Amino acid sequence: MLTVVGNLKGGTGKSTVAFNLAVWLAYDNNDVRAFDLDPQCTLLDVCEVRQEDGFEPIFDVSADLDELVKLAADKNCQQPVIVDMSASNMPAMEKAISIADRILIPVQPSQADIWSTQRFLKIITRNLDKNRNTEVLGFINRADTHRGVRETEEAEQALQMLQGIKELDIRLYQRTAYRRSFSEGLGVFELDPMGKASKEMKKLATMLGER
């Protein structure tokens, strides 16, 4: 299963989500592979911190698009693959979309992010391989924790109305635990297994694993 995590807009938490999913998968499958196609190389950086600090399990991460394409073309490959990508490298983004089994789109709760997601869906439609049954999934990321704030619910409703995407019934909230764990090279569920952020990420990972 080749899962691409992406969006056009920066700051949606793509690298954090991709990293946590890769760590989660690594506990069950030592062959998990990760690819960082974002010129900022945030996923490469956090994986380097994880390796230097000796945290396990570790997994391979690469920025080589050709290697990813070869891996996707290998019919015998059973490795789970997580790809972090951004619009900063549009050719790589378009190629990753064309070979993806699943595209996961974190969406921040704002109108600007909904507009950006709409544009991203057009790019996805243009680049999807019609011979692949690629699943396009979206969810609200960095939701506000205050119950009185309406933006999260409004963005969720708008996301449900977009064509070409299936909204997942989950929210990841704006929590310090995500930033702290990421800076230390840890999955949020490793830093604080019983915390709220950990439970959210475990739910997302489990939900994706069941699809």
Which characteristics define this entry?
211 residues, alpha/beta, Rossmann fold, seven-stranded parallel beta sheet, 9 helices
Largest sheet: 7 strands, parallel
Total E-strand runs? 7
Spatial extent as radius of gyration: 16 Å
Ranges where pLDDT stays below 50 over 5 or more residues in a row are: none
**What's the shape?**
globular
User: Please, what is the average pLDDT?
Assistant: 94
Description:
By secondary structure, the chain is of the alpha/beta class. It has a single domain (2-209), classed as 3-Layer(aba) Sandwich (Rossmann fold), CATH 3.40.50. The chain is 47% helix and 18% strand. The chain is built from 9 helices and 7 strands; from the N terminus they run βαβαβαβαβαβαβααα. The chain has helices spanning 14-28, 42-52, 65-73, 90-99, 111-127, 151-161, 176-183, 188-191, 196-209; strands spanning 2-5, 33-36, 60-62, 81-84, 102-107, 135-143, 166-173. It has a 7-stranded parallel sheet, sandwiched between helices. Helix 6 (151-161) links the parallel strand 6 (135-143) and strand 7 (166-173). Helix 1 crosses helix 2 (42-52) and helix 3 (65-73) packs parallel to helix 4 (90-99). The longest helix has 17 residues, at 111-127. The radius of gyration is 16 Å and the shape is globular. The mean pLDDT is 94.
